[in-house]
Write a structure and sequence with these properties.
The structure holds two protein chains of two kinds.
Chain A (H helix, E strand, L loop, with lengths): L9 H9 L1 H10 L2 E3 L8 H20 L9 H12 L3 H28 L8 H23 L4 H12 L9 H8 L6 H31 L13 H9 L8 E3 H26 L29 H7 L4 H14 L3 H4 L13 H21 L4 H26 L5
Chain B lengths: L1 H31 L4 H5 L3 E4 L8 E6 L2 E7 L2 H5 L3 H5 L2 E3 L2 E7 L10 E3 L4 E3 L6 E3 L4 E3 L11 E4 L2 E4 L4 H8 L5
Antiparallel strand pairs in B: 1-11, 2-3, 3-5, 4-5, 6-7, 7-8, 8-9, 10-11
The chains are: A mainly alpha, B alpha+beta.
């Protein structure tokens, strides 16, 4: 048996059993963050806080929600919204956070692309982050089913039909996923399970992996500079705080992180209290009706760009393009052939690639929202082809990049 | 050496037990997600075909899906092309367009424009004519025809009669 001595304090008692001081050092006070960063480096913490908001509001919604095709709509729109004291608050927090979390994810992602934070040992951070994006997308979709309104039903119909994989006609697979010929009770209950248990578990596991992947390569900085964290942290601990290129994660970096989180939360609760409409589609305030498709259906704004890549093509080509758009971001660390891990602004052609990609995705998002007619169809088609062309061109653009 | 071969055996023995268990649980999980018997049993609908009016689209329901029924006018019947005739369903001396009213692209219900006698899917802009054929992509094929059996003036949906089987064999519907 290991040797224990009589504890001199509660802290000592815990230290002997859980090594709390050591854990605190490893996780916080001696986890080193570069000084040369900006507010964009706080997006990870903003995301963690937003996830916590989703979790807490979700727990309260779960206490009144009924996963039954007859009751689901009324349990959300009547019980939670009118009967339950502050029920509206949990729903608005949940709905707004589900939308805003994607805005922050996109900012977080494009910050990573801009500063080259997926290179030189940081590949696993990028890959685990993209897996989080996929699970968050599945979480958003499954949650969208639960109010069982018209948009829930028809989004469920269209998205599950994608699994018939066009020309392969896997209708049996689609019926298996639904547990019925159309989205019905079996479908609602299983997506309820996915939304409240399996996917949140997967997300929490992936968040753990995402943080773990950050441990060894450390956080990137504004110049992509390779920092000797060992030497710099020794300098800091020796008292040369000004000369060292790093600071402690807690409380030093945390205080700045939480400053940004504070600003974010003011913006967030402004939306929750005064401008929540954007997160609650009016069409979804009609109960699901399998015999009436809404006149114009579209996904939530954060899926529009990939939806617009699916839409302008015939079914098989559309699905291939859609599949391409879903997986291509994961491969970014290997498609970028340049050895430079510096901001895009110093990388010549890559800088143009970055901004064109960003603008193209905004155009795709805008076109995805508009009806698929005339001019919009054409712009959408061009933007979709440009998206694919950009990714095919990336290895060639970056291969000839000059070393900086 | 002696020890390691014993460990090797134990590892393999565990692997075998775990493997059988894993396969068994995957089968159970797959089967658990299959449509329930009650869902499958409710999959038949009988339509009385003598009640429909010419040129008027009626939407029926089968397996939760909308079924378009359009009794063709004499004008439509006379103007039918070969491929349209192949999709024609004849009950007594009436001709029908009878099909699952879901766009073959991703399953939205196309709206019927009575003036133009055509269907437009609002989801992705696909179009179909009154015979159920595609006139504008993305839908990859004409409306699917549900399994049907003609019995006198009635049609039973969900059961495959000879007329349906012939259509399926010739690839007119999936």
């Amino acid at each position: 048996m290991a040797h224990f001595t009589k504890a001199t304090s509660v802290k000592d008692w815990l230290n002997q059993r859980l090594a709390i001081e050591k854990v605190e050092k490893v996780m916080a006070s001696e986890y080193w963050i570069p000084k040369n960063i900006n507010f964009l480096w706080a997006m990870g913490m903003v995301l963690a806080i937003t996830f916590a908001l989703l979790l807490v509001s979700g727990i309260f919604l779960l206490m009144y929600y009924q996963p039954d095709v007859k009751d689901a709509f009324y349990s959300v729109n009547y019980t939670i919204m009118r009967d339950v004291d502050f029920g509206w608050l949990w729903r608005h927090v949940h709905g707004v956070a589900a939308s805003v979390v994607f805005l922050i994810i996109y900012i977080h992602m494009f910050t990573g692309i801009y500063y080259g934070s997926y290179k030189k040992g940081r590949e696993m951070i990028w890959v685990s982050g993209m897996l989080l994006f996929v699970t968050f997308s599945a979480e958003a979709f499954s949650g969208y089913m639960l109010p069982w309104g018209q948009m829930s039903y028809w989004a469920g119909m269209v998205i599950t039909n994608i699994f018939s994989l066009g020309g392969l006609h896997l209708d049996g697979l689609v019926e298996w996923i639904r547990g019925d010929y159309v989205p019905a009770q079996a479908f609602l209950t299983r997506f309820f399970m996915l939304h409240v248990l399996l996917l949140p578990l997967a997300i929490m596991g992936l968040i753990g992996l995402h943080f773990a992947a950050l441990r060894i390569p450390h956080v990137n900085n504004q110049d992509g500079e390779e920092i000797d964290f060992n030497a710099e942290s020794k300098k800091y601990l020796a008292g040369d705080k000004a000369g060292s290129k790093v600071i402690r994660f807690a409380n030093d970096f945390m205080s700045k992180d939480l400053m940004v989180v504070g600003v974010f939360l003011i913006f967030f609760f402004y939306l929750v209290f005064f401008n929540y409409g954007f997160a609650l589609d009016p069409v979804n305030f009609d109960p699901a009706d399998g015999l009436k498709t809404p006149a114009h259906i579209y996904p939530e704004w954060y899926f529009l760009w990939s939806y617009e890549i699916l839409r302008p093509f015939s079914v098989n080509i559309g699905l291939i393009a859609f599949g391409f758009a879903q997986v291509i971001f994961v491969l970014l660390p290997w498609l970028d052939r340049s050895p430079n891990a510096v901001p895009a602004s110093r990388r010549g052609a890559f800088s143009i690639w970055f901004w064109v990609l960003l603008i193209d995705m905004i155009v795709l998002t805008a076109m995805g929202k508009l009806p698929p007619e005339g001019m919009f169809s054409t712009i959408g088609l061009v933007a979709a082809i440009l998206f694919i062309a950009l990714w095919i061109a990336l290895p060639f653009i970056t291969k000839n990049e000059k070393k900086v | 050496m002696h020890n390691s071969s014993r460990r090797g055996f134990m590892g393999k023995a565990f692997g075998a037990v775990a493997g059988v268990g894993a396969v068994g649980s995957l089968v159970a999980m797959k089967k658990t997600w299959d449509p329930l018997p009650s869902v499958k049993a409710a999959g038949f609908t009988t339509l009385d075909m003598s009640i429909y009016k010419e040129g008027e689209l009626v939407t029926e329901k089968w397996r939760g899906k909308p079924i378009f029924v359009l009794k063709k006018t004499a004008e439509m019947v006379a103007s039918q092309t070969e491929s349209q005739k192949a999709r024609d369903i004849v009950v007594g001396d009436s001709h029908f367009m009878l099909a699952i009213g879901l766009c073959t692209h991703l399953g939205c219900i196309p709206g019927y424009n009575a003036a133009e006698k055509s269907f437009l899917c609002a989801c992705h802009g696909g179009m179909f004519n009154w015979a159920g054929e595609v006139t504008k992509v993305p839908p990859p094929r004409a409306f699917d025809i549900p399994p049907f059996k003609i019995e006198g003036n009635k049609i039973i949906l969900g059961e495959a009669g000879p007329e349906y089987k012939a259509m399926k064999d010739s690839g007119i519907t999936l």
